[in-house]
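Reopening: Conjugal transfer protein TraF still failing for me.
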Amino acid sequence: MKHMTAGPLPAPFLQLMLALLLTLSWTAIAQPGGDRGQACLDSNNARECGWFWGHLDDDEEEEPEEPPVEIPMAKASEEELDCTDPEQWEPSCGFVDPEGSFEFQAKQRDMLLNQSVMNPNNPETVEAFQRYMRWAVDQAITMSRMWEWNQIQNQDLNPLVHSPVSSFGLRAASRARDGKRNAVMEEIDDQNGFLVWFTRSSCQFCHDMQPVMRQLERRTGLTIYNAPLDGGCMPEFSNSCDTTGRSVEAAGHLAVEAVPDLWLYLPQDDLWFRVSSGVEAAQRITSRIEVFFGAIQRAAEKGLEAVGDGTSPPVDFSVPDMLERSSGGLGAGIPQGVE
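Support: Ran it again with your exact input. Result attached.
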């Protein structure tokens, strides 16, 4: 038996085999599935087909990834803010009474000022700062009254005691407060209140203050008793001068260290308080009596207790409301001439 030896294949056979391989390869690439092949054979199919890109199915097209949506931090609305909390307070809250917190008022001051200066045509921002300033002015008025009270009640704080001549010519501005003044003086008189003026016969300033004391009597309608510490009465007050020696005892009790020194006494409550020390104008002393007496009344109504050693009465210099100020009351403000 003859064995057939492998030899070179005929060229036509090789060409046939190569064509067959190419056909199978193209079919495998272009038609991985029956449905795709059918789609590519459809002449009405507008989708692209071919060995390079294959068949682009709509259901296999990758959808572009959407960028992540940033969720803004939820900001508390004005209704949710606790505007009385310094940590939560914002300029949109407007001015809030700091209730004794200096840091809280400073925060409001700076932010409301910044807001109003940078938005000067916005009525709301300007109004918010105006309300802060209204509060600040009221605080300043209250402090100035307490300042004057301390200065008059403690002679070592009063520059008028040591250099009275430089301030003698000063006069408080004229104010239409006769109606309120008369009511205050009448109430003091109803309590049998009177003024006690401590002097020394060797005190030149005491002699110079005699016309002022007479004017004060006319303005207030209160009796002024001269209480000489050396037994020598002021010439114009010889008829209302105490020479029994009780003046020295009273001066020691009240810690009178320098003269002239003027005190108001309310027998009903056995209450003493200083209204002038040194050389001053009658109008200034009258105004001070009104303010001090009003402060003592408010303290009594609120049940406040005296501070310190208790020798001075409790006082409340809180600023009265706008109506009282506008009508010429004890508070600050421009009187409107309506009682």
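The beta strands are 194-199, 224-228, 261-266, 271-277. If you still see a failure, please send the error message rather than a screenshot.
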